[in-house]
Design goal:
Length: about 325
């Protein structure tokens, strides 16, 4: 599931899950056959994605110390949906002394605050309902928002361009959506984004569960094409949305390292098509027969229905998995 594009050969060194970069921004080399289409002929796609249930790949999930999930009471302070909103990628080939370079940038249109916050709220409500179905007591932000630890904790600052908090991890920028502005908690300095609630977990004898689910859209990657007396570089792009990663941050009274990590599901897209992609501009400079450079800008316009369906189907599957883990240890 870590390789979304089966026809491309990758020349990258595998990294541990914590260091993995989005597969959409890998350097790839195109295998030249008459059946492969150049990136320059890619057309704008406008078909809405069909809503399908999402199936998690158990081989891409790691549960650390599952016994640390056992409790009678849980606190869900919110849900973080992390979604790519802009980014760029380079492709370069220097075969046989040539120097072909291509640079692509994208921007996502349609990540309205009201839309993504409503999605975060739906994911949160589904998570709480599934946890309660295990027989546990589940507290939410509304239950504990007046607690001094919760009320006094810092909140993320919204980016002026996106009207939402953002996070940059080269070469991508992400928006961070929470059910409400008041639930956009600063993560603190600890490895777990829930650790700042440890004092509450000890005092109230509860477990804090904070899901963070990351999606990447569109998929953009660099490709190079080398052969006899030719060397070129280009940018490829499509509107597929991937479940890039997910983390269920856990804090329990005993302070164990319990957590759930979900790695990239490359061959199981959250949505095959999430909108339309348009090339806004492209500049080409040919310095010589063997040295050229191109730069292109792309606009991804989301289809709200297809995008929302993809986010919810993948997130609901994660909620079900976590609730099942909780149910197992509470028996």
């Amino acid at each position: 599931d870590s390789h979304p594009f089966g026809v491309w050969r990758r020349f990258v060194t595998p990294a541990p899950p914590s260091q993995m970069k989005p597969p959409l921004f890998s350097r790839v080399v195109r295998v030249t056959t008459p059946f492969l289409v150049s990136v320059l002929t890619l057309a704008t796609v406008a078909t809405a994605a069909e809503t399908k249930s999402f199936e998690l790949n158990p081989d891409r999930i790691k549960v650390v110390d599952p016994k640390g999930l056992a409790a009678q009471t849980y606190f869900v302070p919110g849900v973080n949906l992390v979604i790519s909103c802009s980014g760029s990628v380079w492709a370069q080939s220097k075969k046989g002394g040539a120097n072909a370079q291509a640079h692509g940038k994208f921007y996502v249109q349609g990540l309205d605050k009201s839309l993504v916050q409503e999605l975060a709220r739906k994911v949160q409500d589904d998570f709480v309902a599934k946890l309660r179905a295990t027989g546990a007591t589940v507290l939410t932000y509304d239950d504990l928002k007046s607690d001094p630890l919760v009320a006094g904790h810092g909140r993320r600052t919204a980016d002026a361009k996106w009207n939402l908090p953002t996070r940059s991890k080269d070469p991508l920028t992400y928006i961070i959506a929470t059910p409400t502005d008041a639930q956009a908690f600063e993560p603190g300095l600890a490895a777990s984004a829930a650790f700042w609630l440890h004092a509450m977990a000890k005092e109230k004898k509860l477990i804090v569960l904070l899901p963070e689910i990351t999606f990447t859209v569109p998929q953009m990657w660099g490709e190079v094409d080398a052969g006899y007396k030719r060397d070129s570089a280009g940018i490829a792009v499509n509107s597929t949305m991937l479940l890039q990663a997910a983390a269920i941050y856990v804090d329990n009274p005993q302070g164990s390292f319990t957590n759930i990590q979900i790695q990239t599901h490359g061959k199981r897209p959250a949505a095959e098509v999430t909108g339309t992609i348009k090339k806004l501009s492209e500049d080409k400079t040919q310095f010589s027969s063997s040295w050229g450079r191109s730069s292109s800008d792309w606009l991804m316009t989301l289809d709200p229905t297809a995008f929302s369906d993809g986010v919810l189907q993948a997130s609901y599957a994660i909620n079900t998995y976590v609730a099942d883990q909780v149910k197992k240890v509470r028996k």
